[in-house]
Amino acid sequence: MQSSTSHARKISFTSDGFTLSGTLHLPKGISAPPVVIGCHGLLSDSNSPKQLALAARCNSAGIGYFRFDHRGCGDSTGDFGKVTSLNGRGNDLESAIHKLISLGIDRQRIGLFGSSLGGSVCLEVAGRLAISVMVIFAAPLKVEPAGSDSRPQYLAFDLSGRIDQIRNIHIFHGESDNTVPLAHAQSIYQQVAKPKQITIQKNGDHRMSDPAHQAAFLKSAVSWFQKIEPAASYLQRLQ
């Protein structure tokens, strides 16, 4: 998603021996911009429409955006069915954070965005690391272990009681999400610390298919990401 106001750079890095592929979008003419890292959903990749649209809108607001393919997805290495787990994807996200830090991005100026399972990954990592700002959409708080159905065992996890240190989070969820019930978002909101906000999209689904919901989400998400430490404060801190 290149434009006259931004440029994109392909970046690869490693996580637990897997080679992961990503794209860093940076706004032109801005030194030391904050950067948001995007985590895609279970069966998606970094080229999902939400990732591309959010990258473009962030760049227009002077914010960088790094989207990458988790292990076993997109252009990254690994056998999806064998390597996919919340813990593995959490390691991928941590590796992405460290990669940006190695490129000169200050840890305190990194935000996170996660969609569906990607939101759970952000919660899992942010519960252990100091993350400046976060936005999640349709994220499950927990997934029960597989029973008699065909649900793969690697999806089982429970983040309850592990996210109380997370703050500066905006939670989005569709009112009519049949994949991840709204109760998950409400439980997340109750457990995380202030400042926090929850937006429930009326009649919204898991894919955020309503164009009006998409437009409102982009506007609100970018506004929330602008809470990341302003450049002036960051540069003053370096002096």
What does this structure look like?
The chain has 239 residues and is an alpha/beta fold. It has one domain (6-143, 155-228): Alpha/Beta hydrolase fold, catalytic domain (Rossmann fold, 3-Layer(aba) Sandwich), CATH 3.40.50. 32% of the residues lie in helices and 24% in strands. The protein contains 7 helices and 10 strands. The strands form 2 sheets. It has an 8-stranded mixed β-sheet with strand order 1-2-4-3-5-6-9-10, sandwiched between helices. The protein has a two-stranded antiparallel ribbon with strand order 7-8. Strand 3 (35-39), helix 1 (49-60) and strand 4 form a beta-alpha-beta unit. Helix 1 (49-60) packs across helix 6. The N and C termini lie far apart (34 Å).
* Domain unit count: 1
For the secondary structure, the number of strands is 10
Q: Could you say what the CATH architecture is?
A: 3-Layer(aba) Sandwich
Element pattern in H and E? EEEHEHHEHEEEEHEHH
The strands making up the biggest β-sheet line up spatially as: 1-2-4-3-5-6-9-10
CATH topology: Rossmann fold
Could you describe the largest sheet, including whether it forms a barrel? 8 strands, mixed
Give the integer mean of the pLDDT values: 91
Overall 3D geometry?
globular
Tally of separate helices: 7
CATH top level is Alpha Beta
- What fraction strand? 15-25%
Note the gap between the termini. 34 Å
State the helical fraction.
Answer: 25-40%
Quick take:
This protein is an alpha/beta fold and 239 residues long. The chain has helices at 49-60, 80-83, 86-102, 117-126, 182-191, 211-225, 231-238; strands at residues 6-15, 18-27, 35-39, 64-68, 110-115, 133-137, 142-143, 157-158, 169-174, 196-201. Strand 3, helix 1 and strand 4 (64-68) form a beta-alpha-beta unit.
